[in-house]
């Protein structure tokens, strides 16, 4: 027999029987929330942000823009972003320590507006300008710095 078949039988032998006697492989099951549940989670978390109580060491005026940007992102693109597979950190990721590093889409807006979003990139307009910029989905996952959702920043 081929070596791969022996390996497959060995792995199959490690499987366990479930309650109904069916074979259950020893593979971790990772549950991902549905787009609807993900959107609801974002909506609830963004609604918990208080524009008058800055988190993460942000100046009060910058914090108020952050909260407005998060509100606008949820209202205008939240459901679509969840359906397109954007993650919490893609949209609401903020640096866990230093405010001057990069962050997710809401961090980048700084009063600007999202003008288009698809399954790979969001295009946004800079505040008080006709200039636009793009933000790629999963960009933060490529960076080594730790990021947290904005609502998990420390006081």
Helical amount: 25-40%
- Beginning-to-end CA distance, first to last residue: 62 Å
Q: Please, how many domains? A: 1
The major β-sheet equals: 3 strands, antiparallel
> Strand-residue fraction?
15-25%
Fold and architecture overview:
The protein has 155 residues and is an alpha+beta fold. It has one domain (35-152). The protein has helices at residues 3-13, 35-47, 60-83, 88-92, 105-109; strands at residues 16-17, 23-24, 93-95, 113-117, 121-125, 132-136, 147-149. A three-stranded antiparallel beta sheet has the order 4-5-6, with helices on one face. Strands 1-2 form a two-stranded antiparallel ribbon. Strand 4 and strand 5 form a beta hairpin. Helix 2 (35-47) packs antiparallel against helix 3 (60-83). The N and C termini lie far apart (62 Å). The model has no long low-confidence stretch (mean pLDDT 86).
Keywords summarizing the entry:
155 residues; elongated; single chain; alpha+beta
Topology overview:
Blueprint: H1 3-13, E1 16-17, E2 23-24, H2 35-47, H3 60-83, H4 88-92, E3 93-95, H5 105-109, E4 113-117, E5 121-125, E6 132-136, E7 147-149
Antiparallel strand pairs: 1-2, 3-7, 4-5, 5-6
Q: What is this structure, in a nutshell?
A:
The protein is built from five helices and seven strands.
């Amino acid at each position: 027999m081929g070596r791969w078949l022996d390996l497959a039988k060995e792995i199959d032998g490690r499987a366990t029987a479930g309650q109904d006697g069916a074979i259950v492989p020893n593979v971790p099951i990772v549950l991902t929330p549905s787009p609807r549940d993900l959107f609801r989670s974002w909506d609830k978390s963004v609604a918990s942000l208080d524009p008058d109580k800055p988190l993460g060491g942000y100046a009060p005026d910058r914090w108020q823009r952050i909260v407005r940007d998060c509100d606008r992102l949820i209202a205008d693109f939240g459901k679509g972003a969840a359906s397109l597979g954007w993650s919490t950190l893609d949209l609401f990721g903020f640096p866990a320590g230093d405010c001057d590093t990069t962050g997710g889409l809401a961090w980048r807006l700084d009063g600007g507006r999202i003008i288009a979003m698809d399954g790979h990139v969001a295009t946004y307009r800079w505040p008080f300008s006709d200039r636009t910029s793009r933000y790629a989905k999963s960009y933060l996952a490529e960076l080594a710095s730790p990021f947290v959702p904005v609502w998990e920043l420390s006081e």
